[in-house]
């Protein structure tokens, strides 16, 4: 269970640049739930992810992972608990290292082991199996530099790297936004497969309301640093994008003229 209790984050506090990014946000995610998150630009989505990774300091409230209060833990201390895939396909891996070396590095995430790039035969076979499951033929390219891969291939490997080690929550930070629609769909379906196969708890930020409704089991909408919509189960199954906009309008007494605010 992941719990974010009454969390506030204010950037540049006490200065003319003061920006409240989260304003008393409450959220509980049961183990194994795949949650999608939407919200307009500046709603606080990235800040929420940063609060979970320990990259943003909270000014109020608590973060609990499996009942353990990790609020004061810096990001490196949470590395074994939280994994993240970024929007930029270049961000999650090292271009100058081979696919195999990148996987070897990922396998040390959150452990006390040093950076061991050398790979023995057993581990190579395991990496090959993992790569085969991506269905991209990368199992035959273990020695290729990561920088040679396309954006979609790289994002698929980043996903694999993020999920090689056990974690308590997988954070997907608009991880298909930089891909063309067909590749994005492939990576999203791969995401669904990995999350379901491993029974992961996951939080996926997206600017697409369609994606938010199509993937996962629960959708949150953030607005001005708070959760303003939280739909799951039958309510969510029957929803289409216009329904989501209407729900938002009813909830907030404001109207979103179209998708533009949310699609960024
Ligand atoms: N490091 C920072 N320093 C100052 N202000 C910040 C910082 N990070 C975020 N903010 C501000 O906090 C607010 C929330 O930003 P955040 O990036 O969490 O929104 P978001 O929902 O992820 O938006 P987007 O969809 O545009 O990525 C915004 O007003 C943003 O400008």
From TrEMBL:
PROSITE patterns: ABC_TRANSPORTER_1, ABC_TRANSPORTER_2. GO terms for molecular function: ATP binding. The keyword Transcription does not apply. It is a peripheral membrane protein. Gene3D superfamilies: P-loop containing nucleotide triphosphate hydrolases. SUPFAM superfamilies: P-loop containing nucleoside triphosphate hydrolases (SSF52540). Its main location: membrane. Residues 2-249 form the ABC transporter domain. It is found in: Cell membrane. The keyword Phosphoprotein does not apply. Keywords: ATP-binding, Cell membrane, Membrane, Nucleotide-binding, Transport. InterPro entries: AAA+_ATPase, ABC_transporter-like_ATP-bd, ABC_transporter-like_CS, ABC_transporter_ATP-bind, P-loop_NTPase. Transmembrane segments: none annotated. Belongs to the ABC transporter superfamily. This is ABC transporter ATP-binding protein. The lineage of its organism: Bacteria, Pseudomonadati, Pseudomonadota, Alphaproteobacteria, Rhodospirillales.
């Amino acid at each position: 269970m992941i719990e974010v209790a009454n969390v506030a984050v204010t950037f540049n506090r006490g200065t003319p640049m003061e920006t409240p990014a989260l304003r008393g946000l409450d959220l509980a995610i049961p183990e194994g739930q795949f949650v999608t998150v939407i919200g307009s630009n500046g709603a606080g989505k990235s800040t929420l992810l940063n609060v979970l990774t320990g990259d943003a300091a909270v000014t109020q409230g608590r973060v609990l992972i499996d009942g353990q209060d990790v609020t004061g833990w810096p990001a490196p201390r949470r590395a074994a608990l939280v994994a993240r895939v970024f929007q930029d396909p270049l961000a999650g891996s090292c271009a100058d290292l081979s696919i195999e070396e990148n996987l070897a590095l990922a396998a040390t995430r959150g452990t006390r082991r040093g950076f061991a790039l050398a790979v023995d035969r057993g581990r190579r076979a395991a990496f090959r199996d993992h790569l085969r499951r991506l269905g991209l033929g990368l199992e035959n390219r273990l020695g290729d530099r990561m920088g040679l891969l396309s954006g979609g291939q790289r994002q698929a490997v980043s996903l694999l790297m993020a999920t090689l080690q056990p974690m308590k929550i997988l954070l997907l930070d608009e991880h298909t936004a930089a891909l063309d629609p067909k590749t994005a769909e492939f990576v999203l379906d791969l995401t669904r497969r990995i999350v379901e196969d491993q029974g992961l708890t996951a939080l996926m930020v997206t600017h697409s309301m369609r994606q938010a409704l199509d993937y996962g089991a629960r959708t949150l909408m953030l607005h001005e640093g708070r959760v303003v919509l939280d739909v799951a189960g039958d309510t969510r199954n029957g929803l289409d994008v216009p329904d989501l906009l209407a729900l938002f309008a009813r909830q907030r007494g404001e109207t979103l003229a179209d998708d533009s605010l949310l699609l960024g």
